[in-house]
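Researcher: Here's a chain I'd like modeled. Treat it as a single chain, no partners, no ligands.
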Amino acid sequence: MSSIRTQKDKNRKKQKSMIILGIITCVCLALCLIGSLAVDKAAPKLDFTYAVASVDYSKTKPLSESDFLTGVTATDEKDGNLTDDIYISAMEYSTDGKTLTITYNVRDYNGNITSANRIYNLSGNKATIFDPEGQGKDVASKETTAPAGSDPAGESETAEPATALPIRESETEPEPQTEPQTEPPTEPQTEPPTEPPTEPPTEPPTEPPTEPPTEEPILGSGKPVIVLSQNEVSIPAGSAPLNLTQFMAQIYDDFDSYYTLYYTLWFEGSEKINYSVPGAYPVTYHVRDSLGNWNDPVTLIVYIV
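Model: Modeled as a single isolated chain. Structure tokens:
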């Protein structure tokens, strides 16, 4: 009897251990399922409801990224407000310089990225958000017509010589014409020709040639200029690639506009930056105007730490 009881006790212990093992397995599976559901896969959202609709600019105050970040917000279901993490990855001008396309990006803490483009029209030193329904209105308002007319005032002067014909006919009949013709020609021809020719030629030629050549401006004789807002920048390893244009405080030339120069920008060394490997990476800024003049290079040191 004792052997039978011991066998039953062993069987009961085995059943309990199997039940406990099954419970542990179920708990582990439940935890894994909850963990997979908790992973953030939703990308953040960009909101342009209160974004700036127009920006003024000039040669001394070119457009910058900060102008177009005003009013733009970003939110994420898990991370909340990500407005401070919004950055502009590209500012691309059209070939005719009439539109500007801006690419906005934001990334949540789990690596999900959202991108969006906004197009601005460039006209009259103002960048205005693109409006398809308003196309053509400005062009139509610029059409002007100029009335054409003629001035008939010159016709009265041509009719005067006809009145002299009767006088010439009356003077040909009398014979005393031989005496007055000999005396008048001798006196007027000797006195007037001697005085007028001597004075006018001496005064006008001496003054005008000396002044105009010195006042003519020479455009395009200077080099374009790039001024950096800082000479070095440090970012942690694994960061997103930098938008190198944000470190330009000024770019100008005595011949070309800001937008013409923008298309010739060249960042020497930017392709060698490894954002995953710590180190110092120099990037040299180059720009050329339409006359072929290059700027004096300026360098930004990018430190990956």
